[in-house]
Specification:
Blueprint lengths: L1 H4 L3 H22 L4 H27 L5 H24 L5 H23 L8 H19 L5 H27 L1 H5 L3
Helix pairs in contact: 2-3, 2-4, 3-4, 3-6, 4-5, 4-6, 5-7, 6-7
Length: 186
């Protein structure tokens, strides 16, 4: 408990985001994201997503960027997004292949970060990675609400493909910009 008490505010928000995943998943699956449970799920997911934006702004504006934050913030995002997407597969709101592409990218990047970390390199998220995360979070919000017709239904379908494309683009960008990490493995 002292470890959390001694953390800076951005890192506490990152930890809060990880904790919020548990009630979010319970609300999604227990209530099948319908009726009041849809709203509970939406509020929990939106709140957790907001902490992602907030912790980054606070860390940069107050010069509170830490190695813990550089590592745990993207991990908290991955846990939140992957948990939501897996729930949404169960609710039949997103194609499995899209979720597999997203999760595969996250495993590849996590492995890449581990290799970098073993070489004393901490890699912060890129613009493409941040854009990918935002697109995925918007997509998840649209899927939680579950529009079944109209312009927002079309937007949801477009966002599915946009999120998948940004996932692949961010993977290629990340590996290309940090290819020196692969060179270290000889």
């Amino acid at each position: 408990m002292n470890a959390i008490r001694n953390m800076n505010l951005p890192n506490k928000l990152t930890c809060l985001r990880m904790i919020m995943i548990i009630p979010f998943v319970i609300a999604m699956l227990f209530g099948r994201a319908e009726g009041v449970w849809m709203w509970v799920s939406l509020i929990l997911f939106a709140g957790a997503s907001f902490t992602d934006m907030l912790d980054g702004k606070i860390a940069r504006s107050r010069n509170l960027i830490t190695d813990f934050g550089k590592f745990m913030d993207p991990l908290a995002d991955k846990l939140l997004v992957c948990s939501a997407l897996i729930c949404l597969i169960d609710l039949r709101r997103i194609p499995t292949w899209v979720v597999l592409v997203i999760i595969a990218r996250e495993f590849i990047i996590s492995g890449f970060r581990l290799v970098a970390s073993d070489n004393g390199i901490v890699i912060a998220a890129s613009w493409w990675g941040k854009t990918k995360t935002v697109s995925q979070m918007i997509l998840i919000i649209l899927l939680i609400i579950d529009f079944t017709s109209g312009p927002l239904y079309i937007l949801t379908k477009i966002m599915i493909y946009a999120a998948a494309a940004l996932t692949v683009i961010s993977l290629v960008d990340y590996i290309y910009k940090n290819r020196n990490v692969l060179d270290m493995q000889g």
